[in-house]
Write a structure and sequence with these properties.
Number of domains: 2
CATH superfamily of the largest domain: Aldolase class I
Number of strands: 15
Shape: globular
CATH class of the largest domain: Alpha Beta
Order of helices and strands: EEHEHEHEHHEHEHHEEHEEEHEHEHHEHH
Strand order of the largest sheet: 8-9-7-6-5-4-3-2-10
Number of helices: 15
Oligomer: single chain
Pfam family, one: Radical_SAM
Main location: cytoplasm
Distance between the termini: 37 Å
Largest sheet: 9 strands, mixed
Keywords: 4Fe-4S, Chaperone, Cytoplasm, Heme, Iron, Iron-sulfur, Metal-binding, S-adenosyl-L-methionine
Strand content: 15-25%
Subcellular location: Cytoplasm
Family: Belongs to the anaerobic coproporphyrinogen-III oxidase family. HemW subfamily.
Structural class: alpha/beta
CATH architecture of the largest domain: Alpha-Beta Barrel
């Protein structure tokens, strides 16, 4: 079962935002995230808000595109009524779940609704996630013709026993095929990998990274496996059927990936993300890390505009009922206070290559910088130039760096 929604105050049925959400909006980028909550099978490690066919309880995949389009139309009206200035959409991201379980025509129609309601900025980045076994060449051609610019394939591993431990269903040999089809369609390509799977060796991981690099993607993400409570994987580990992933091995895996990727011409730009150059960084995800605005469409989707965060009803049937009734699908929200916004700003900006301006830190945070340099957690040259940028050691200990920057701060 997917993870629970956060606690917060009830969201208003009319979806209106407090006046503060409009402050400075014209200076923030605006993106749209469309959540497609369907999967063919549930992976053992996944706690995302996703549903297989036998978990839908009356909701139908065939109805979903129309429901999402209704929310997109609703979102424009709600933002206008809240006084938030209209802005063309800089980035659109279809995530899930497996968006490409829907027909390509549905995804194109959903993108079309974003274009119709808000307009797409020139050169907008439009991404869909896909599993290697969920698309064919015709689908990718149709997506590219409909305005998609980028596809992110959930490769996860090139090693069959690792894929089996993750309950992934694709054959590793399909990855070169789908990458080639995406290239032929004119799409940029990103590959997602997971490391630290129980039973995965350092040699297994090296094989996966090298296989990914051999496909010459524009972008690669490598995420450490997180064992979430309530998942099949957590239960297997608790019963002793699988070993708990080793922190030391995961650190070795990260360093190996960073070395291999750097040697292949990739540069890190966020703790878990690398790109061949700045033009191929995920601009949508950078919007999250930089605190920009985005509207999240779909069951359980989260949105953020001007320090107001809200989230939709989780189950597709509950979401459909609210949208069909013409009321906001949001069920909860929080208005972030200044201390919380500062904590999140430090937490997120320290993760990216550009870093965070030292002078923007509170006094305690500025005082902590010297110790972070001495411990080789931040780049000394960058810090002397006024930017706090993580070293590779710092990337491995990013959470600890953030705690030290905040522990001595005057945030209150």
């Amino acid at each position: 079962m997917a993870s629970a929604l956060p606690l917060g105050e009830p969201a208003p049925a009319d979806g209106l935002l407090p006046a503060s959400a409009a402050d400075g909006a014209q200076h923030r980028a605006f993106g749209v995230y469309l959540h497609v909550p369907f999967c063919r099978v549930r992976c053992g490690y996944c706690d995302f808000n996703t549903y297989t066919s036998d978990e839908l309880r009356g909701a139908r995949q065939s109805d979903y595109a129309g429901q999402a389009i209704s929310e997109v139309r609703m979102s424009r009206r709600m933002l206008e009524a809240s006084g938030v200035p209209s802005r063309p959409v800089q980035t659109v991201f279809f995530g899930g779940g497996t968006p490409t379980l829907l027909p390509a025509s549905d995804l194109v129609a959903m993108l079309g609704s974003v274009r119709d309601e808000f307009g797409l900025a020139e050169g907008a980045e439009v991404t869909t996630e896909a599993n290697p076994d969920s698309v064919g060449p015709e689908d990718l051609v149709q997506l590219a013709a409909g305005g998609f610019t980028r596809v992110s394939f959930g490769m996860q591993s090139a090693v069959p026993h690792v894929l089996a431990a993750l309950d992934r269903t694709h054959d590793p040999e399909r990855v070169p095929l789908v990458v080639g089809w995406a290239r032929d369609a004119g799409l940029d390509v990103s590959l997602d990998l997971i490391y630290g799977t129980p039973g995965e060796s350092l040699d297994d991981w090296q094989r996966s990274v090298e296989h990914a690099i051999a496909q010459r993607p524009d972008h690669l993400s490598a995420y450490a496996l997180i064992v979430e409570e309530g998942t099949k994987l957590a239960r297997q580990i608790r019963r002793g059927e699988l070993a708990t992933p080793s922190d030391d091995l995961e650190a070795d895996m990260y360093e190996l990936a960073d070395d291999l990727l750097a040697g292949a011409g990739f540069e890190w730009y966020e703790v878990s993300n690398w790109a061949t150059d700045a033009s191929h960084r995920s601009r949508h995800n950078l919007g999250y890390w930089r605190g920009d605005d985005w509207w999240g469409v779909g069951p359980g989707a989260h949105s953020h505009v001007g320090g107001v965060r809200w989230w939709n009803a989780k189950h597709p049937s509950a979401y459909a009922e609210r949208v069909s009734a013409g009321i906001s699908p949001a069920v909860g929200r929080e208005v972030l206070d200044a201390p919380t916004r500062e904590i999140e700003r430090v937490l997120l900006l320290t993760r990216i290559r550009e870093g965070i301006a030292v002078e923007s830190l509170h006094a305690g945070g500025r005082h902590a910088v010297a110790g972070l340099i001495a411990d080789e957690l931040v780049d000394a040259k960058a810090a002397l130039s006024g930017e706090l940028v993580l070293t590779r050691k710092g990337r491995l200990l990013a959470d600890a760096v953030v705690r030290r920057l905040l522990d001595g701060s005057t945030v209150s």
